[in-house]
């Protein structure tokens, strides 16, 4: 088993009653047995991973390379006056890497099948071999320390293969940083802006130098310049966001997805789009939880392997909660739905099944675009700010009282601003 499978589960409580949302992190505590205009990105746009059509220009030691513009990227288009906005859905993966479960490669196929582009947040230490761990100097921790371990040559090679294929298929490669430190004892929530900058630079360095570090000179390079590819992130356990955003704003990032919000239209915080995680229903429960597999896992079995007879029910509950969240946006305010996941087999893999079922259900519907965070940010940047301001006046699940054309023709000041949904 590759070293990257030796992960530890972490969570952080956010003040929503009865463990309503916990920021989940990759772990191994419970492994089971082994955009078009009028619809989702379809099969024609999602063929096999494309080969670069322009000459490859190696960067640095050849770990990365410029291969030309990324394939399968929709051209962002401003809404025409009164046009109903599309329904965006973003599926994303924290600490993306290919281990013995082969979930990275599996969900690439799922994305191809159902026309879904996704964002993969790569942990830099998954491209750093165990015998080179002293190259990592984490803030507020000893050199060579990582709470999710490191990798081995086979794991690095497998992960690079999946990242390469995912990028050629139109998906985004973000970062989940490196050592995944949570909590008060030196966790990312205690880091200064300068410490975040150090962590970001090291995460980039491990991606840009994996060939040398892992002695894998014959393996093909990653097909992008990580300096321009990397524009967004999700922090470990959703901690440390304030100082991370200060650092990211100075380092050319375009979005952050480490916050907690309702299903309303996003806005910028300073230079960054706030594409936060969202509160979604838990069918049969009186409160909402965060739109992430770990949070359903925590609420259902306390982040420990639960009764096997309940696994199917728990997966169905997560799927149905996400689909309900989708429906209230799709038929309401059309706010983008943000969903986060981990390549983990918690409770027998039931959450992976739930995510696959959700992708199959929502990404095939009309006027739906299952996109990466980069693609969503591109679309938001292309819109008239007054139109986005008007969309933000709609509450969770609230459709315009008039038709969309009449609603968007009115200035934003004509209605009261949206209120956050009640959090339980």
TrEMBL record:
Record GO biological process: carbohydrate metabolic process
Disordered as annotated region, ranges: 33-81
Keyword terms of this UniProt record: Signal
Annotated signal sequence range: 1-28
Designated name of the protein: Lipoprotein
Organism: Streptomyces candidus
